[in-house]
Amino acid sequence: MRVLWLTFAIVIVDQVSKLLVKGISIPWLGINIQGMRYGYSTPVLGDFFRLTYIENPGMAFGIDIGGKLFFSLFSIILSIGILYYLYRGRTEPLGFRISLSLILGGAIGNLIDRTFYGVLFGEGPLFHGRVVDFFDVDFFNINILGYSLTRWPVFNVADAAVTVGIVLLLFVHRPHEAAKEDIPPPVFQETPSDETRLPSPAESNKAPR
Questions:
Q1: 133 belongs to the catalytic site
Q2: How far is it, in rounded angstroms, from Cα 68 to Cα 87?
Q3: Of 81, 168, 185, 200, which residue has the fewest beta carbons closer than 10 angstroms?
Q4: What is the three-class DSSP state of 25?
């Protein structure tokens, strides 16, 4: 279960980056981070890579299907399921466990936003927070069946971890399954009993004629 340290690291990096972007004030700890202005973009690598602060109530990359409470409960169930599967598969190949740890870290990272950010920032009740996104990358344009996407959806560290975990899972899972199929079944060789065992040459010479 040491791969859970990777999950923990993803959650920490994800939350710290989001709080730096969104800003937070905790006077009794002497913390006062202004954060970015909502909707404002800061170029990092020209127009290719920018930091753009937006929030969304849905899943990764701004996908919104269903309500906020649905996604919060779905993330909780998903996280528990992955954690249980990691425990059951603790003897699985390392690549397989790393991929699940990445997905788990991303799921927990966005779950914290949906569960607590509404209450923490006075924006809504429990389970009704919005996910903070800020990575704004211009990979390529997509035009499929009338659907046009001129810029990649803004995402965060948790989204990236989930995506990398899923891609890695596709690569490591199939070779692992194929290796299982290639293992021949065990062959059990029966040892003849005393009743069916043929006599040895020495025993045949001793037999009465």
A1: yes
A2: 29
A3: 185
A4: strand
Q: Which of these, 31, 6, 19, 30, lies nearest to 112 by C-alpha position?
A: 19
CA distance readout (Å), 33 to 6, 46, 160, 187:
27, 25, 24, 67
Task: Give pairs for 134-137: CB < 8 Å, separation 24+.
Answer: 134/17, 134/18, 134/21, 134/36, 134/51, 134/52, 134/53, 134/54, 135/49, 135/51, 135/159, 135/160, 136/41, 136/49, 136/50, 136/51, 136/52, 137/48, 137/49, 137/50
Q: Is 194 annotated as catalytic?
A: no
Q: How many whole angstroms separate alpha carbon 33 and alpha carbon 60?
A: 25
Residue tagged active-site, from 14, 113, 133, 136 = 133
Given 14, 113, 136, 159, the catalytic residue: 159
User: What CA–CA distances, in Å, run from 123 to 98, 111, 114, 115?
Assistant: 35, 16, 11, 12
Q: How confident is the model at residue 7 (pLDDT cuts 50, 70, 90)?
A: very high
pLDDT class of 140 with cuts at 50, 70, 90: confident
pLDDT value of position 197: 58
* Residue of 144, 137, 176 whose CA lies nearest to 159: 137
Task: Return the domain boundaries, the chain.
Answer: 4-182
pTM of the model: 0.77
Q: Which residues contact 83 (CB under 8 A, 6 or more apart)?
A: 104
Rounded-to-integer distance, Cα 166 and Cα 179, Å = 20
Residue 65 has pLDDT above 60, yes or no: no
